[in-house]
Design brief:
single chain; alpha+beta; 1 helix; elongated
Amino acid sequence: MEYRGVEYRVVQGIKRGFWKWSVEIATGKKSGTSGSKAAAMAAAERAINNALGPDRGQLSRRT
């Protein structure tokens, strides 16, 4: 999967309700586990947001 130009992985663990996520970014590799696929995706995307900061990869909105 890809978010903000960064690839991340979400895979189902052996046990039911166990999902693993991992992200490789310039500052290193981050990974973790979650209880659902949606939670794992959110955690991976949060890690990407924390690494990239709020401005990179987003379109600026002018009103």
